């Protein structure tokens, strides 16, 4: 899918999202424009209340903007109905959350299979793909374990495998190391780097500057606006 893509994976043009609290209008996103090419690793950062979550929700098709255009993998999504938006969200976005959000009664392999079940992939093919994905995240031997039998880092690996199961256009990670100790957090970041080297488009939402700097590019938001959009120093050395 990603290989076949030409043009940007994400295009935001003048996106605005407002919330009304009583008589007050809060501009959570106030005219945000940027584009992300296929295969980029971009972090979105900023202090609490700056608009990161709102931006992530719009990118992830969990919410729609009040104004502006959003093109995801060549498809305009800003005016889709709820059902259409859910379809795009479920098939084109791979979510990774801080708290993993695995289903506790299912084994690792069954958790990875969940999106494939909803997508109607036959059982054998599902098992094969889920096993392959677990191997890719370094958990080939943990498929039969339930989340409680896995460490935090292993749980996040399962969640990442699940996020990759439908070959999403974008891997959207929200503070993915926030619930992990430093060393384990590094391992998870290493996994993102490996997936990036393999061609994945990754958007990492984090308030931690050190993590944000590990991406190729950092987009900083403040008061619902982009205040900075730059390549990281380690990238400038490379190019
Ligand atoms: P961050 O993720 O960077 O902490 P948010 O996107 O959550 O920032 O919030 C941006 C602004 O929008 C904040 O002022 C926040 O209070 C406001 N906001 C976010 N969600 C809502 C909501 N559902 N209703 C009202 N205001 C909201």
Defining traits:
four-stranded antiparallel sheet; 239 residues; six-stranded mixed sheet; 28% strand; binds adenosine-5'-diphosphate; alpha/beta
Question: What topology, given as strand order, has the largest sheet?
Answer: 6-7-8-3-9-10
Identify low-pLDDT runs: none
Query: If you compute it from the alpha carbons, what radius of gyration comes out, rounded to the nearest whole angstrom?
Result: 18 Å
| CA-CA gap between termini | 26 Å
What portion of residues belong to β-strands? 25-35%
Large-scale geometry? globular
Helix content: 25-40%
Give the oligomeric state of the chains in this entry, treating copies of one chain as homo and distinct chains as hetero: single chain
Largest sheet: 6 strands, mixed
Query: What number is the mean pLDDT?
Result: 93
Query: Which molecules are bound besides the chains?
Result: adenosine-5'-diphosphate
Order of helices and strands: EEEHEEHEHHHEHEHEEH
What structural category do the secondary elements indicate?
alpha/beta
Determine the number of helices (DSSP H or I, runs of at least 4 residues).
8
The overall strand count is 10
In short:
This protein is α/β, with parallel strands linked by helices. It contains eight helices and ten strands.
């Amino acid at each position: 899918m990603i290989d076949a893509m030409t043009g940007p994976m994400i295009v935001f043009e003048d996106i605005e999202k407002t919330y009304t609290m009583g008589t007050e209008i809060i501009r959570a996103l106030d005219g945000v424009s940027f584009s992300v090419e296929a295969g980029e690793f971009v972090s979105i950062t900023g202090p609490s209340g700056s608009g990161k979550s709102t931006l992530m929700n719009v990118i992830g098709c969990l919410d729609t903007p009040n104004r502006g255009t959003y093109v995801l993998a060549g498809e305009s999504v800003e005016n889709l109905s709820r059902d259409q938006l859910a379809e795009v969200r479920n098939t084109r976005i791979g979510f990774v959350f801080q708290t993993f959000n695995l289903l506790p009664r299912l084994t690792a392999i069954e958790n990875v299979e969940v999106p494939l079940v909803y997508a109607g992939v036959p059982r054998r093919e599902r098992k094969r793909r889920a096993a392959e994905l677990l191997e890719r995240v370094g958990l080939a031997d943990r498929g039969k374990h339930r989340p409680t039998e896995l460490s935090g880092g292993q749980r996040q690996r399962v969640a990442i495998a699940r996020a990759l199961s439908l070959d999403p256009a974008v891997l959207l990670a929200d503070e993915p190391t926030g619930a992990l100790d430093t060393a384990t957090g590094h391992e998870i970041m290493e996994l993102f780097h490996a997936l990036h080297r393999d061609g994945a488009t990754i958007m990492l939402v984090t308030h931690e500057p050190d993590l944000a700097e590990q991406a190729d590019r950092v987009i900083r938001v403040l008061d619902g606006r982009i205040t900075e959009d730059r390549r990281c120093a380690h990238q400038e050395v490379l190019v």
